[in-house]
């Protein structure tokens, strides 16, 4: 038997015969699997830039030349800490055998506005280029969550990623945004539309940096602690209930405990969820965030992220209660905790365009924007009880409207519910 291949005689069993009978190259697959492990410390300290404090030094590996550092500073934080730049320069000079500055300290605007302006990303990238920051050097960003997001995005897209050390200076960034693996900026009127997943090299939390925070930022960051407690740790929720008066009175020890536990729970989720880079449609840690992100945009970011998250959590908790999922006593505990912390659970922009869920200037449009941001089917986290979350894939618009109106009513009256009996 002969097989013809391109006009040649082919013997059965020959290499040519085997090639002739092999599958078409278009049907062949090489299945590649890449397993990558990320490790980074999240350290808690005080007096980070005291020359005797080795936290920054110990976060860096020993090498045969000083580590090159490019500092990016939040100018709002610098205004509150005018000695900071000199402290950093003296710290680096004191440890010249281990550290060197790659250029002048760079200050950028603080607050959410820094994530709206593409020029700020380019400013950081240009400094990385001028300073010769390579993939064994470091961008060290000192500031609130928005500045850390922006500088992190710039660092992650320079040389396909240079090492980033985050030094967060707000409650919200120390207990949530800066300890994770995301970097982002805003585009097209949407929050975090551009971004990367790039774990930091290290996160260094200095408790002393929180002392000068305005009350709005001191309290607003606690909404993320309430969120993660509701999802994962009823005991932590009870601790927040008991400690709420001290937290509102700016007790530093109470804040230290709240920040540490909140960061710990966020880190446990990122490491243990099986979806650290959010490839699926489920994002438990975005509880309350579909409405929060939309409210931030609708208020032109006058409403800060932590404040918007508190309202978003109150809305989804109220919806859970009205849907018959969440017991009334648990719903009352949630609302009462926000009230005790001094965090609003309602904003007038919630009422805009309630009759038109597709209107881009209404909060209900945030549902579809959230689905688009996640990809796949809409996945919203609700509650069955404190510590028992529940995922759903649709929201009843009439019930959402009722929840918004319920929160409006609560905002107009001084609600005084009896203190619940502690559950042990």
TrEMBL record:
Can you name this protein?
A: 3-dehydroquinate synthase
Q: What's the top EC group for this one?
A: lyase
The record's InterPro entries line, in alphabetical order, gives: Dehydroquinate_synthase, DHQS/DOIS_N, DHQS_C
Q: Keywords of this protein's UniProt record, alphabetized? A: Amino-acid biosynthesis, Aromatic amino acid biosynthesis, Lyase, NAD, Plasmid
> What Gene3D superfamilies does the record point to?
3.40.50.1970, Dehydroquinate synthase-like - alpha domain
**GO molecular function ontology, one term from the record:** 3-dehydroquinate synthase activity
Q: Which Pfam families did the record assign?
A: DHQ_synthase, DHQS_C
Q: List each copy of the 3-dehydroquinate synthase N-terminal domain by range.
A: 107-218
The Enzyme Commission number assigned here is 4.2.3.4
Region ranges (Disordered): 1-26
């Amino acid at each position: 038997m002969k097989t013809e291949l391109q006009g040649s005689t082919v013997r059965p069993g020959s290499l040519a015969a085997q090639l002739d009978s092999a599958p078409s190259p278009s049907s062949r697959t090489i299945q590649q699997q890449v397993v990558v492990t990320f490790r980074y410390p999240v350290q808690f300290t005080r007096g980070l830039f005291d020359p005797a404090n080795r936290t920054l030094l110990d976060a860096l590996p020993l090498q045969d030349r000083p580590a090159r550092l490019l500092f990016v500073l939040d100018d709002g934080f610098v205004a509150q800490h005018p000695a900071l730049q000199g402290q950093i320069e003296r710290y680096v000079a004191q440890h010249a055998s281990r550290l060197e500055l790659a250029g002048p300290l760079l200050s950028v605007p603080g607050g959410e506005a820094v994530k709206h302006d593409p020029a700020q990303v380019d400013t950081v990238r240009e400094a990385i280029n001028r300073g010769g920051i390579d993939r064994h050097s470091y961008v060290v960003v000192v500031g609130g969550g928005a500045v850390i997001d922006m500088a992190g995005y710039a660092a992650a897209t320079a040389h396909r990623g240079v090492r980033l050390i985050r030094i967060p200076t707000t409650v919200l960034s120390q207990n949530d945004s800066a300890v994770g693996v995301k970097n982002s900026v805003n585009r097209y009127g949407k929050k975090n539309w551009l971004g990367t997943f790039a774990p930091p090299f290290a996160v260094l939390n200095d408790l002393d940096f929180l002392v000068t925070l305005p009350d709005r930022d001191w309290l607003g960051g606690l909404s993320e602690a309430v969120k993660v407690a509701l999802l994962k740790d009823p005991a932590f929720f009870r601790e927040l209930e008991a400690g709420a008066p001290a937290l509102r009175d700016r007790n530093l020890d109470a804040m230290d405990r709240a920040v540490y536990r909140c960061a710990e729970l966020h880190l446990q989720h990122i490491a243990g969820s099986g979806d650290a880079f959010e490839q699926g449609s489920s994002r438990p840690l975005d509880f309350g965030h579909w409405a929060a992100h939309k409210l931030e945009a609708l208020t032109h970011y006058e409403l800060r992220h932590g404040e918007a998250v508190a309202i978003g959590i109150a809305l989804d908790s109220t919806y859970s209660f009205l849907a018959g999922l969440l017991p009334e006593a648990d719903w009352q505990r949630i609302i009462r905790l926000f009230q005790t912390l001094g965090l609003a659970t309602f904003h007038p922009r919630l009422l805009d365009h309630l009759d038109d869920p597709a209107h881009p200037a209404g909060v209900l449009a945030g549902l579809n924007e959230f689905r688009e941001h996640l990809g796949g089917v809409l996945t919203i986290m609700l509650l069955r009880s404190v510590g028992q979350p529940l995922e759903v894939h649709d929201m009843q618009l009439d019930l959402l409207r009722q929840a918004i109106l319920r929160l409006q009513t609560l905002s107009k009256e001084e609600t005084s519910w009896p203190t619940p009996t502690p559950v042990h």
